[in-house]
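Field: COMPLEX_INPUT
Field: COMPONENT_COUNT = two
Field: RESIDUE_TOTAL = 1181
Field: MODE = joint
Values follow.
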Amino acid sequence: MTVYDIYLISPQLALAALAMVVIVVDLLTRRTGLLVGLSFVGLAAPAALSAWQVTDLTNSGASQLTAEGSVVLYTLSIDKFSLFFNFLILAAVGLVVLVSTDYVRRMERLQGEFFGLMLLSATGMMLLVSANELIMMYIALELITLPLAALAAFLPNGRSSEAGMKFLVIGALSSALMLYGMALIYGFTGSTRLDEIAVALSASGATGAFPFGSMALLLAVVLLLVGFGFKMSAAPFQMWVPDVYEGAPTPMVAFLSVASKAAAFALVLRVFYIGFDALGGDWWVLLAGLAALSMTIGNLVAIAQRNIKRMFGYSTVAHAGYILVGVAAVASAGDSANFGPSSVLFYLAAYTAANLTAFFAIVCIGNRINSDEIYDYAGMLRRAPFLAITLALALIALIGVPPTGIFIAKIYVFAAAINTGESLMTWLVIIGVVNSVVSAYYYLRVIKVMFLQTPIHTERVGASWPVNVALGVATLALLWLGVAPGALLGAAEQAVSVLAGG
Amino acid sequence: MLTEPLVWAIFLLPVASFLLIGVVVRPLGPSMAKAAGYLTILALGIGFVLSLWLLRSSAHGVVYDFVPHLWLNLAPGASIQMGLLLDPLTNVMLVVVTGVSLMVQIYSMAYMDGDESFARYYAYMSLFSASMIGLVLASNIVQMYAFWELVGLSSYLLIGFWHERPSAAAAAKKAFIITRIGDVGFLLAIIFLFFRADEFAAQGLNALHIPDIWQAAAPLAAGGAGIVAGGALLWLCLGLFAGAAGKSGQFPLHTWLPDAMEGPTPVSALIHAATMVAAGVFLVGRFFPVFSESEGAMMVVALIGAFTAVFAATMGLAANDIKRVMAYSTVSQLGYMMAALGIGAYNAALFHLFTHAFFKALLFLGAGSVNHSAGTFNMMYMGGLRKAMPFTYWLTVIGALSLVGIFPLAGFWSKDEILLEAWLGTGAVPTTVSLLVFLMLLAGVLLTAFYSFRMVHLTFHGEFRGGGEQELHDCEEAGQPAPTGVSHHVHLGESPWFMVGPMVFLGVSAVVAGWIANPIGVKSIFGLIPSHWLTEYFASGLYDGHHAPPFSIAMAVISNVVALAGIGLAVLTYMWPRPFTNNDPLTKGGVVHTLLAQRYYLDHLYEGLIVGRVFYRIVAAITDWVDRNIVDGIVGLVGWISRNIGGLIALAQNGQVQTYPLVAAAGGVVIIVLYLILG
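Field: COMPLEX_OUTPUT
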């Protein structure tokens, strides 16, 4: 372990240290406002260190940061891809911390743990997005899941405990399946490093008459994907989602729905585009199938929901489907102009902005009216104009209507799919477009209830200023990505260059 | 030299004022409404100064070439960008739009004073100005189309501003729908370009970037890309021209423009003098390098323009509503501009667009001022207002003389240049066509002079005929509803300075706006303005700039004699020897007068036959059937599936955590089995 190694993982270390400090400070003081401030300001350290790494990387011109004798070199890859996700995760966790201001004020104790666990989970995510080796990935995933399970069970009520329990059980199960898959891969290729796996697979001439070349690999990929499917909340591995979304504390759900999902997709991109690069012709069909299933199930079941958090649970399944379309858009041989992976990164950023906006509004509203039922949102435009308008904007964004980021993201994802030239992918795009139309029904219904129905109560619903700031920032981000997507698209394209290199 | 953010500010300031009024000022209630007006005036005032600065630096040779910002990369060769295309056309249009708009906003402070929706009015006005500015700045055809539609939307909102009046609501709808017919052509042109994107990409061009489209139309021999040519080029031009004809009220899509006078008068001044209707001419001007490659398209533009110039002028003869006279006059003058573009006289057309904006805005504001005092727009109830409102009278006379094209007012210089170009021919269309255009436009001068001075006499000379009070009385007796803008509020006298001030500015412009272009070709005026400055400046925006022909005294004499003949006829008919009392001598025209007063029955044809019979009975019936049976059927099916599948999934979603891995495992097994079966 050299000093340089410590520099390489310094953003993650800083974040973990921040989590410890927050927990300790909580023991020393009773002022919850201080904890919010500390957690938020403390995020500047990992952000600054990540920014430092970006400049380092740009100056050196290399694809990843490395040095002689580094021990983390083969387990972690600090490249533009991981740094892109670092910023995304830090932005998400920062905004969620701000939004929790009002939420934790109502808790009698353990506020420090609330923030500490969230920061620890974010540390795991930042490790995961740079992980370049199967064992490291597994450890990072556990670091993400365990604090989240504790957070899901944070509220002293039955639903929350149930959510935590389910999250823990499902998490353990998916880890087990994934580990089994990893073991098979190790057995087949003799390595846990993605780059060596890639070399072994292309050397074995795996693509043949049999899918993936051997039963062992087929089983391994499917098991891995079942494990990843739970994390991405893709169908048919989505069943825990609505239960956890409904029962867990809303700020934690906001965090879970964007950051955890982004990290899972980063993992999938790395594993499939680097490790299984040679088998691209076999696995894209599998991902395309999961995409179609997720979009359809997510949207159709969301229509029937009456609880807004459950509805968003299915909505997130549907969006996992749209994103999977981009993952499945593997470039056909000889075509260099593939923007499937970069469209996935852009989609994740746009989705983060839109979903955070929506959840932040739901946090504020739910905090005051103590209900997550959609019909209790009646007339919210009059009770809380700012919240209602931002929530409406987020819902419009989630449909994919311009000028919001998801509109651009969907265009890019679908265009990437069409560019592959596979007729199956064209069908997938048609399914995606039809699904987008269907999704308008349940998203717009919430707007209708908020804008057109008369309120049952008339008392105003408001929030404190940090919450409003977070909400405003997220709303601006979702509009900004729709109006001027250029900068982020450029960053996404640079980030995925490490994937194309194999 | 302006930086990019400063140029964007011209557009963003009215956007900001629109948002501020909508979000902050309006909710504060009527007591704060005045702030809306000041905000708009401030935004446009700064925009006007910036536009002048931009024009000045550009005329001094600064080339503005900002890199457009990518918005969406649809396909290779088809990128939607947000950019600024700052060529002479845009720079002059910016000055016209911000300048006239600024005057109209100031005028409205007094004209709309006391209206209960004062803040809403200014919000719409800001939106409208912003859309128009965005339109002229656009460097990408999709960007342009977006603002084109926003202009349509905001004009709809403004024409229907007094939406509680059925006639205003109907007029707004009519404007929206008829311009939309033309817009389909514009949209088809864009789609056509999109489908040729591969060929653009092959040459490193972007099919949606306007300068690239110019290049695509230019033949290879001329250093262009030669992508679109022949019949395809003709159709592309006709699509664009359809959009232009809708917005600029060219025959046969002109019927919405006179009805649009239902909006507040300053709106008419803004929309129907300087900006919205000019958008059509601007569109053809913007794509002039494309049009000029297709002789067929040029002939269509020239002939439709010239025909509209005469056709609309004849309807202006028989109109009794002062704003309708102006409206027909606008349609007619837009015909002049289109005709000039069609015969290849790009510079002259845009010069006329420039001068017309000033004198027509002046005339509209004059009409508003008259209404403010007489309480009506019907000239049959006016008369004798000359003594009561001397400023309005003299300013209107200046505007009318400028419109008619009397030496040495602004309108003279630009109209004269169009006539001269038509007479000499530019080589863009066959000589017979340009001569035909010349004859039609010359006839138009006679008609313009007649209806303009009919308007002046009926409004300002003779005896006062009772104004709005009398009209309401007559309507009541006849059992008819009173038209828009009629009130008991008759108090003969000059309008407040907030209204007269802007009119004075526009009046001065209506005199000098021609001179600043130095059309005679004097070596230089006071050493400031070089010879033929404006037309040369316009020409610098094109590859092969056509240069203005030297000033011709003979043509000036001819056009002035014709114009004076028209004015003389109007004097003989309405003023001397017998001043007009209450019987319009034109009604003796019998069938012809009826035909003109009924607007050639075109509205009846459109509304009665085409809309009433064809659309309601046939098209609407079919779409209704499709909607009920097919569309609703699909929607119902989705709902049914969702209910039933939802039920199935809910069955699995039983809250038992042990079920979830079971389903997941089943999914995994199914995947493996499928792989094994399908290979």
